[in-house]
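Consider this pair:
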Amino acid sequence: MSHPLLLVLTASIAAMSIAPAANAQASVSAGKASPAASGPKPIARADIVRELNADYKNVDTNGDGAVVLSEIQAAQARSQKAADTLYGKRRDATFLKLDTNKDGQLSAAEFNAGSPPPQMKRPAPAAILQQLDANKDQKVTQAEFGAIMLGQFDRADANHDGVVTPDEQQKARTARR
């Protein structure tokens, strides 16, 4: 993905569905291999469209078919809250892990002072709106919302079969460099 604003928006939206990521992390912690650990998998355009549609519905909270600045701001706030919650759970688990003799000598305050929460670098919501709003009407339609990512998908799908194979993914990464 070569558009940093879209990447951050997509990451922000994806973070709103943090529960699947937490479940995947739990699987890794339990010694189960993550599907992502086995290497790139083919990506179907239909899957991208389905995810974009779901993400758009999560941002277009009033369901009017247009994403406006306030909805982008609200999506970012939800994303940050989910990230903060996940970080808190990981921090607490790390504290318990670090206190190996279970004597309670490592206080939570000491641990927290040494590990500030991550700060996600985010572009201004107005910049996201400007990048996605192709017709500059200060609203992002569903078509505008997915246009950049679907365009990148279509360029990567060299044989236009609706699936980006690992080989096509590699060639697209190489072409972007």
The first helix runs from residue 4 to 16. Residues 14-34 have pLDDT under 50 and may be disordered. Strands lie at 43-44, 163-164. The radius of gyration is 20 Å.
